[in-house]
Specification:
The complex is a heterodimer of chains A (410) and B (106). Chain A is of the alpha/beta class and 410 residues long. Chain A has helices at 12-23, 63-68, 128-135, 151-162, 183-195, 243-247, 292-306, 369-381, 386-391, 396-409, and strands at residues 5-8, 30-34, 71-75, 78-82, 87-90, 94-97, 100-103, 107-109, 122-124, 143-147, 166-171, 199-202, 206-211, 216-221, 226-228, 231-234, 238-240, 256-258, 269-271, 276-279, 286-287, 319-324, 327-333, 340-346, 349-356, 359-366. Chain A folds into 3 domains: 5-108 and 239-306, FAD/NAD(P)-binding domain (3-Layer(bba) Sandwich), CATH 3.50.50; 111-236, FAD/NAD(P)-binding domain (3-Layer(bba) Sandwich), CATH 3.50.50.60; 326-409, Enolase-like, domain 1 (2-Layer Sandwich). In chain A, the strands form 7 sheets. Chain A has a 5-stranded parallel beta sheet. Chain A has a 5-stranded parallel beta sheet with strand order 9-16-10-11-12, covered by helices on one side. Chain A has a 5-stranded antiparallel beta sheet with strand order 22-23-26-25-24, with helices on both faces. In chain A, α1 packs parallel to α7 (292-306) and α8 crosses α10 (396-409). Chain B is α+β, with helices and mostly antiparallel strands and 106 residues long. Chain B has a single domain, classed as Ubiquitin-like (UB roll), CATH 3.10.20.30. Chain B contains 2 helices and 5 strands. A 5-stranded mixed beta sheet of chain B has the order 2-1-5-3-4. In chain B, β1 (3-7) and β2 (13-17) form a beta hairpin. The longest helix of chain B is centred in the N-terminal third of the chain and has 7 residues, at 24-30. The chains are: A alpha/beta (410), B alpha+beta (106). At the A-B interface, α7 and α8 of A face α2 of B. Chain B: Belongs to the adrenodoxin/putidaredoxin family. Chain B: Keywords: 2Fe-2S, Iron, Iron-sulfur, Metal-binding.
């Protein structure tokens, strides 16, 4: 290989991929094309710590890392892929040649499309720059309207409320976190935010954004109500950045379609992280995850695959976390399916066990990091049965300890 | 400024001078000490910055509830001196620490 490996996108996935390539001894050129001017930084704080005062993003690696590991960090946006010539066009007329291309382009915030959505003060949140823009509005008494009761919306609501803003969260579904968690967990999360003083408006759509000449001053709901606003933050999901792949005639379907080896239809191009839509070979079902765990695990995997460290398909146990003020929600999901849940309370700690067909498929934990961690150890090995868990009063930690004992004994 | 010596599983070691209040995890990641991952960015959430605190001139508070809970499930065995490196922030300018990096982190 002469031309080396080009990684497009410098979020958790891209940076980890470049790092892991060097760690596994890859000695050819590594080019990391970043679309942002700053040193690549950690993303979870964008919707948490970076919404306070003058907090600065935490670099994923120091500047010296890129020099010492001979990773060319190109702070410019990729403009196009020429698959025949095996090169990436970068803005400013730069061209990066590749033997292998890793697309780690991530996802961008979905923008609302109702009338008035282009008004000043109607914001989305995805980057450090977005966080700097938003936090200028977060002060005592400011009227903040959050659209969407997903992870981002709830995290923003918590940070805004903690800074004394009057927060209204509008969710069109009949509960928060509708796609992500069980009804039991959603109810606890709802209670947490209501207690913190967030006004939750469920089952309402946004009809339009209102202005009195200038920036946004309110949100008109489908039912006709008007919610006054100094700023509106839309947390209504993310759209995978698959434009480069699409333009290069690679299959895209809510993300860049890859096989079990995270390889696109072009064997010299892979996709990892938020932008990757992994296709299940038998059912054709697509899985696309947006998480630090998924980005990091897929990045390490692709480095392994490209350096001959593995030939097996990608496999990892997905887990997530979301900090919403004093509430820490953590989840591990072996499969999203569940037909029954059992919640286990232990003082302020609660975990909800998800079962499907009598097998444990996932655990949602609220302020219960120990159970979360035990569940990760447990589910990484196999899915225990509901009967096994019933024997230990659904105490995930107890079962995980037993399994660990057996492993040590064996 | 505090100094932290990281002893790696192969017996080699690396000594880093850090800024006061920088965590032992941040210092390790910034200087590419292998085996300290810090995937969650220092929130005591992922358990991938487990170290054994072998020597320290500075006394740290014992692990809090979150850290304690994480330490039970570390990939390498827990010892009495197991800590999450993200929770160790030497603040004394003359602090000297020796931490051992476990064989496995995840």
């Amino acid at each position: 290989m002469r031309d080396g490996i080009v990684v497009v996108g410098a979020g958790h996935a891209g940076v980890q991929a470049a790092d892991a390539l060097r760690e596994r001894g890859y000695s050819g050129p590594v080019t990391l094309v970043s679309g942002e001017p700053e040193l690549p930084y950690t993303r979870p704080p964008v919707s948490k710590d970076l919404l306070y005062g003058d907090a600065e993003p935490e670099p994923l690696r120091p500047a010296s890392f890129y020099r010492e590991r001979r990773i060319s960090l190109v702070p410019a946006a990729a403009r196009g892929i020429d698959r025949d010539a095996r090169l990436v066009h970068v803005s400013g007329g730069i061209v990066a040649r590749y033997d292998h291309l890793v697309l780690a382009t991530g996802a961008r915030a979905r923008r609302p499309d109702q009338p008035g959505s282009d008004l000043r003060g109607v914001l989305t949140l995805r980057t450090a720059a977005d966080a700097r823009m938003l936090r200028g509005y977060l002060r005592p008494g400011a009227r903040v309207v959050v659209l969407g009761g997903g992870f981002i919306g709830l995290e923003v609501a918590a940070a805004a409320r903690a800074q004394g803003a009057e927060v209204t969260l509008i969710e069109r579904g009949d509960r928060v976190l509708g796609r992500g968690v069980s009804a039991t967990t959603a109810a606890m999360v709802t209670e947490h935010h209501r207690e913190a003083g967030v006004r939750l408006v469920l089952g309402e759509q946004v009809a339009c954004f209102v202005s009195e000449g200038g920036g946004v001053t309110g949100v008109r709901t489908g039912a006709g109500g008007l919610v006054a606003a100094d700023v509106v933050v839309a947390g209504i999901g993310a759209v995978p950045d698959d434009g480069l792949a699409r333009a290069a005639r690679l299959p895209v379907r809510n993300g860049i379609v890859v096989d079990q080896w995270l390889t696109t239809a072009d064997p010299r191009i892979s996709a990892i992280g938020d932008c990757a839509a992994v296709r299940e070979p038998l059912t054709g079902a697509i899985t696309r995850l947006e998480s630090v765990q998924n980005a990091s695990d897929q990045a390490r995997y692709i480095a392994d695959l490209l350096t001959g460290g593995t030939s097996r398909p990608y496999r990892a146990l997905p887990w997530f976390w979301s900090d919403q003020g004093s509430l820490r929600l953590q989840m591990v999901l072996r499969s999203p399916a569940h037909d029954r849940t059992v919640s286990v309370r232990n003082g302020a700690r609660t975990s909800v066990l998800r079962f499907d067909g009598g097998l444990l498929t996932g655990v949602e934990s609220i302020n219960d990091p120990s159970t979360h961690q035990a569940a990760r150890r447990l589910l990484d090995r196999a899915a225990p049965t509901e009967a096994e868990l019933a024997e230990v009063d659904h105490d995930v930690r107890a079962l995980a300890r037993q399994v660990r004992q057996e492993k040590v004994g064996a | 400024m505090p100094t932290v010596t990281y002893v790696l599983p192969d017996g080699s070691n690396q000594t880093i001078t850090t800024a006061s209040a920088t965590s032992v995890m941040q210092a390790a990641v910034a200087h590419q000490v292998p085996g300290i991952i810090g995937e969650c960015g220092g929130a005591a959430t992922c358990g991938t910055c487990h170290v054994y605190l072998d020597r320290s001139t500075e006394t740290f508070l014992p692990p809090g509830d979150d850290e304690e809970a994480m330490l039970e499930w570390t990939a390498s065995p827990r010892a009495d001196n197991s800590r999450l490196a993200c929770q160790l922030r030497p603040s004394n300018d003359a602090a000297q620490l020796v931490v051992r990096v476990p064989a496995e982190q995840q």
